[in-house]
Structure formats: C-alpha cells, structure tokens
Amino acid sequence: MSGFSQNSINDAKRGHKTGLIKKMILDGIPEYGRAEVWKSLAKTRAYRGKHFVNPPNFAENLPKEIYRHLLSFGNPETDKEILKDIERTFPNCQVFKKSQHVRKSLFNILHAYSLFNPDIGYCQGMSFIAGILLLYMNEEDAFFTMISILEKNNLKKFFSPGMEMVDRFCYRLEKLIKIKLPRLYKHFKLNNITVDLFGVRWLLTIFSYDLTPEAVAPIWDIFLLLDKNPVLSIAIGILEMIETHLLSLNQDKILITLQNLTPHLNTQNLAKMLIE
User: Fold this and answer.
1) Average pLDDT, the chain
2) Which of 34, 55, 210, 234 is least buried, going by the fewest C-beta atoms within 10 A?
3) Which domains does the chain have, with CATH numbers?
4) Which range is the signal sequence, renumbered to this chain (predicted)?
5) Could you give the 3-state DSSP secondary structure of residue 136?
C-alpha cells in the first residue's frame, strides 16, 4: 500500500504538483485516491465548466446541466446496441454482474455520449472505457472524464465510421514492433500473428478488454499521465515486458497470452519503464 497522505490526494484533486502525481503512479496510487488523480490528469473539472459547442441534434444552446439534459432525450436505435453491449462488458466482474444500479449508470453515460457527439455516436469498446471509470467515480464525473479521455490525442477519431484510423494505428504499431522488438516481429510473422488480432482491442478499450479491471487501473494511471501517443507507448512497453515469454510460444498460445494479459504483467515495472 502506498504511503501517500490525504493531503497528497488533495493536491492531486486541485491539479497541483504533477511531479507528485508521477511519484504516486510509480509507487502505486491508493485505491481511495485514484478517482481524484484521474480527474486531475484528465482535467475533468475543466470539461464540466466548458462552454460546449451545440451538437447538431439540438436546436438551442445546451444548458449548464448538460449531462442531465442529454439524459432527457431518447435515442432508441442506439440504445438497443448499448444495452446489448452492456451485457458483454466485464462479464466476470461482480460489480457489473450484481448491480443493476451500476449497469443503469453505464447505460446513462453511453446514451448521453451518443447524443453529445452524434458524429460518432456509440461504438463498441466505449462500454469498457465508461465501465472502468464507473468503478472509481460517480456517474456524472465518469461522463465528463470519458469526454476528456476521448479528446486526449484525439482518441475519438478511432471510433469514427470506417475504422480507417484504427488500421493506421495498427500499421504504426507494427512498424514500431519491427524497429524496437525485431525478434518478436519475426516471431509474430513466423506464427501468422497480425497486429490487428490484439491491437484493435487494446486501442478501442484502452487495454481494459484483455485485463481485469483491477489490473488495468495502473495502466490507465500511465495512460492519463503520458501526453503523446499513450496507447502506442504502453502497447510497446507491454510487448517488451513479455517478449521473452512470447518468444517461447506458438501461435495459439501467443494469442491466448495477448488476450489475457493480467497474469503476465508487472504494472509497477511497466510504469517505471515508461515514465521514469
């Protein structure tokens, strides 16, 4: 358990001392403080107070209580897709399995975002992003933090129709593997492992599909701290960390490992690798 005091958490809450937050991530953020650190790094409060451009679905300026306003509108076709995906979101997590209230909050966030950003609407993967946030903060904070996360390095573009930007991400990741991890690159080629088999899920869920919620939280600490290409940086860091193990495996076991990362990662060492 980290030895950080409540004063440290309060400094993070006020957006103070980036160096302190970095140290907290390296040492391990206490669970009770993670929400405040994430909201600070994501600048959630700035988004809550921002004057949003009016989405085209609405004829009048959005009111100050934008979240509650969005929830008052229907979106039947999209809502059907959201409800289907909620049942598939963290199926082994007891919080989501047992709590109707949490599932309702997850639905509300995704419904509101689909109306807030109608050019993108709702896409698969978003339920995992919103779900992780709900484990650490209230529904409305999770909504605004999700907006911030999807704005970070323009991640929302990966959810645009056509998936062209996702293909571009996979291309860049493959090139980085070839340059930084040439032995692993050759091993993937020999075993017909293409980057899209794992990279798409890592990108669109920010690693939360292939890690347990408890294991992915420290990954998100790193993701929110890094300013440039955080998903690419973390993906390469993960592959570098488990490279030796992957080199000993054949095709099927490589895929099983890449799609079930939790037993193979030391997230504290990953943080040191990426941000020290």
Assistant:
1) 87
2) 55
3) 1-42 (no CATH), 52-154 (1.10.8.270), 162-275 (1.10.472.80)
4) none
5) coil
CA distance 189 to 197: 13
As given in the structure block, the two tokens for residue 145 are 């933090």
Instruction: Compute the C-alpha angle 4/8/10, nearest 5°.
Output: 135
CA dihedral sign, ordered 193, 197, 200, 202: negative
Residue in the block written with tokens 């004057």 = 51
Q: State how far the alpha carbon of 39 is from the alpha carbons of 15, 16, 191, 233, 237, in Å.
A: 9, 12, 41, 21, 24
Do residues 274 and 234 touch, judged by C-beta distance below 8 A? yes
pTM recorded for the entire structure? 0.88
At residue 13, the pLDDT reads 53
| Spatial distance between the Cα atoms of 132 and 164, rounded to a whole number of angstroms | 26
Residue ranges in the chain assigned as alpha helix (H): 6-13, 18-27, 34-42, 44-48, 66-71, 76-86, 94-98, 100-116, 126-134, 139-151, 164-180, 182-190, 196-204, 213-225, 230-241, 243-247, 251-258, 267-275
The model's pLDDT over 54-85, given as tens digits with 9 standing for 90+, comes to 444 443 445 568 898 899 998 899 999 999 99
Residue positions counted in the chain = 276
